Each structure stands twice: as C-alpha cells, then as structure tokens.
User: Fold these one by one.
Assistant:
Number 1:
Amino acid sequence: MQARADASLAPDVDVAVTALSPLDGRYAPKLAALRPIFSEYGFMHRRVQVELTWFERLSDLGLPEFPPLSTAARAHLRRVVRDFAPADAVAIKAIETTTNHDVKAVEYWIRGNTELGVPGAFAGWPELQRASEFVHFACTSEDINNASHALQLQAGRAVLLQGLDAIIERLRGCAHAWAEQPMLSRTHGQTASPTTVGKELANVVARLQTARERIAAVRLLAKMNGAVGNYNAHLSAYPDVDWEAFSREVVETPAPGADTPPEAPIGLGLTFQPYSTQIEPHDYMAELFDAVARSNAILIDLARDVWGYISLGYFKQKLKAGEIGSSTMPHKVNPIDFENAEGNLGLANALLRHLSDKLPISRWQRDLTDSTVLRNMGVALGHTVLAHQSLLTGLGKLELNVAALAADLDAAWEVLAEPIQTVMRRHGVPGAYEKLKAATRGQTVTAEALHALIDALAIAAEDKARLRALTPADYTGLASALARRV
C-alpha cells in the first residue's frame, strides 16, 4: 500500500520532514537564531513592541485625556513585550480569523475585546483599560508594520554579521598561518606568477571587511506619520502638538534594555524617516539587501576557488567518522560544504535582488505588493546564514597538501620568464619580452633551459646569479608580508 503524503493524517509525523521549505525542514536546527525574528511569531512580537511603545510615549505627551502612566503600568507593558510567547501569537491569529486584518488583531489582543472573548494584555489593569482607545492612536497599519520590519532587520542583521565575522576571523587566521606557503597562481586557468596561500585568503578577508562595513552602516528607518505620511489624523485630534518631533523621538530614542528603569523614556532605537507616503519607501532595505548580496557574491567567489584548489589537491579535507562521499565510490571525499554554501548563497541573492528591486516601487500612495514580498526577508537571510555555517564547517576541514603545492610549482618554471625579462628591460636589452616569449610560450620549460638562457644574457654577473638562484617557490613578491598584515 502506498504511503499517504498528507501529514494531517499522521499527527506523529516529524514536522521537519513535511515542511515545504528546507529552512524549516532539513536545515531547521541550523536556523534557530533566525526563527524567533522572522517567523510570524517574530513579526507579531515586534508589532506588539511598536504598539506598546507608541502607547506608553503618548501618555507622556501631556494630553488631557491620557495622563502619564504609573511606573507599575509601564513595567507591566514592558513585561508584555519581553515575555511575548508563541502562545500569544496563536491567540492573535485566532482573532485574525474574525478580523481578517493582522494589525487590528494585534490591537484587539492588547486592548482586549469582549465581543471576541479576548481578555487582552490590559486585563486586570483598570488604568490601562481606561486609556485603551489610545492603543494604535492615529496610526495606520503601516506605521506599525514598517517599524516592526526595521526591528526584525536590526535583530537579523546582528545574527548575519556574527556569522560573517566568524568567517572573516577564520580566514584571517588561515591567512596568517599560511602566509609563507608558496602557491602557483592561475590566471585564465593557466600558470601565472606565484603567490602564497595566505595572501590569496587575505584578499578575501580585505574584501569581506569592506562588505561587512557596508552592511553594518545601513541606517534602519521607520516612520510614524499616519495614513499618507502627513499626520492628518494626529492634527485633527490635537492640532497644537508637534507630531513630527514627537514621532522622531519615539522612533529614535533607544529601546529599553534589561536595566532600563520603568520611568525612563523609551523608543524603538531606529532612524526617523521624515518623508513617506503610507509606506516607508524601503530604499534603506534595498541598500541593506544589496550590501548583503555583495558580501554573498564575494563568498561565492571564495567557495568556487576553494573548491578548485581542493580539486587540484592543494587542500586535503579532514575526514569525519561515518561520513560517506559517494553511494558507489568509497574513496570520495567531496567538497560538499563549499558546494552547499554556493547553492545557498545563490538562492539568497536571487531573493535579495528581487527584494531590493521590488520594494522601493509602490503604486501611488501604496499597494500591497510589498507586504507579500517582505514576508520573505527571513528566507533570504536564512539562506545566507545557512551558507555562512557551511563555509565555516568547510574551512575548518581544510589541511594544506604541501607536497602537491610544491610539485605544482616545480613543474612551472616558465613563470620565471616574467622576472627574467623584467631584469633584461632594466638593463636595456632590446626585445626582452619577445625573446622570453619565444623561449617559453606554450612550451614545457625546465630549470636547466632557463639557466642556460640567463647565462647567455648581456647583464651584470650579480643579476645573473640572482636570477639563477630564483625558483618558482621563491618568486612570491610581497605576498607573505601582505598576508601577515591583513
């Protein structure tokens, strides 16, 4: 009898094997740090934070109908945010089945709704219940959502940078450790002037450091300015309040930490966006996603190069007990970590580039296409974080194959044509390049043949001696110093 694929018919089936996305299935344990941030629960958590921050700060505005909240009430609101749990998100989702509006469901959960039988976060607090009409006061849904997305990206960026930093430090350590190890370069896939293994990794470190700085430098913006960005509703209720200044203060005041006293003013810890339609324009998101995609492109370059060096035998891979490389070829030790990383980085960049291209575009004052797309931020960053982990694993398995590196260099004496013709030029020997081209291009060159050529040159004896002493392994320029310096 054929097994049925409908997991609803088998309650004991592991969710991981029925998940539609591998991020929540096969790779779920590796992405535990992102799930509380970018899941539906994570989005609701940030919405609750934004709603209650706005509500608490409204009480400090001096509105006659909304006196300042007591210290105890403030402490309770912050506990609601701090202790928000998946069960609370489930309760909000239950409300949404009636409202068919996700942000309104959050508002009803906070305030409580007798018609829906929801006790709410304000239950048992008459002080808060009396002021409940100021929950979501003068806000459009996008005021809550755009700030929530920025908070999600703030937390998600921290996770991503942690992984990127670990890769940079691993590569830096390898660059220093292998700074002196000569390696034959290949330009266009052909033998070229030697370098060192450490210097090639130092190149990647330098690129990633720049990419990391650009990711970290993107300011995360939020707006709290109403239905079309003009504070229309705010001014209709309280025309004498400087709503723009107040909104800026709420957005930019730091979010509360574990040691923030209840009486201290709190905010969201973001950067204020003064100009918007109904939605924040998402230009900063495009900038951030482009910056992440740039770092991912560098990592794809790294993954492909290391894959190639493993294929050449420059690196061996440490064996893991019980691991199998092929179902039929027992000898195989495949570079799977670098292949997995490359695949995930490609998926991430496809999504990131769609996000950066689409999100800044919205019809008139808003359309809903951004909402659907934004729910996939965590998918794009999830593939990136997964790739970071694969790269770290792969880099940790690498061992130098010094014998293979040396043999490759010793079989490529033709690369010394460059220093020989350069010294000839210094001494004004006519046709230096052409003479070396005739002697080496497309040919197998031996040390003896090069030495005979050097002996016949009309240059100083000390220069001949210096060139005769040169080997491919010695001809690395400043590579080792550059590698140690990174």
Number 2:
Amino acid sequence: MESQLTILLPIAAVWLAAGVVADGLPRLLNTRALHRRTGWLLALTLTGTALTAAVLGGGLFDAGTAPVDQAAAGLTLAAGPALVATLCSVRRIRRLRAGAGAFASAPATPAPHGLRAAAAHPLVGLPLQVTALATVPALIAAAGTDLGADPGVTGPAITVGALAVAVIAVRHALRHNRFAERARPAAARSTRTAGALHV
C-alpha cells in the first residue's frame, strides 16, 4: 500500500504543479516571465506524461498484484486527460513559448494581450488540471480508502468530480474570452460598440 502511494505521489505532484503553473500564465505581465514559465510548464507536462505512461505501461506488461500494477489500475482514470494534455496542451505550450521567445531581445516588453489570451486558452490548462484531479481517486485508494466499495460514496464522489471539472472548464472559458476581447483591435471593438448603440 505504501509503495503504491510512493509511486503515485510524484505523478500527482507533477500534474498538480503543471496545473498551478498553467493557471498563472495569463497573469504574467512581461514576455520574459511568460517565456520562462512556459519552459517550466513544458518540462512539467512532459515529465508527468512520461511518468504516467511508464506506470501504465508497467501495469500492462506485468498484470499482477505488484505495487506498480495497483498504481497503474488507479491511474486508468487519468490516462484520458493525460493523453489530451500530450496531444493538445504540449503543442499549444510550445507555440506560446515560441511567441514569447520572439521578444527575447526586449525582455521587459509587456506581454501582448494576444499572448495572454493564448495562455488562457482552455486547452492549455484544463487538461493538466483535470489530469491532476483524476489522480486523486488513485491516491485515496492507495491510502487505504476504496471509493468504489461503497455505492453510497461512489455516486456522490463521481458527482463532485464532474462538477469540479465543469467549474474548471467554465472558468477557463470565461477567462479566455476576457483576454481574447482585450486582444481585439480597438477599432473593431469601437465599431461593434457603435453598431450596438445604433440598433
């Protein structure tokens, strides 16, 4: 039980750290900080993906009762979000890092609203945070509490998890829309506002 927890804790910690770093990206005010943090985020995401894949792969090749097998069984819920993070988030983080790196000659340059809107895109932070959330049941099971054993607990736990994912998704969408609105040219915004006033 303890060795299973020892395997899962670093994975959960890496995904949690990635989710926290991703959440803070849109709040960064200069391109130098954005470039540095996207580098951290890329490293954390790739590390989390590698660790998750290693444990899941170990569980597939050795189906038994070893700690790695039990950890792999617990991580099956996190496999989907981790795959989305690998396919979608990594590509967006790389593009964001390249965009921030274009201002390397002027490190004190304020981060453009377009870059901050890209950093706030739901596909940057949402898969990472959902993956971190999906590791929680595995940690709880490894600590000795089986959520699936009691139907009276399983239903509410699934509901709470689904609500948490929905809240995180709505928060990301609203924040992205706010930054995307700021990134639009002022002339386009004023024309749209004037048109709305004439109607």
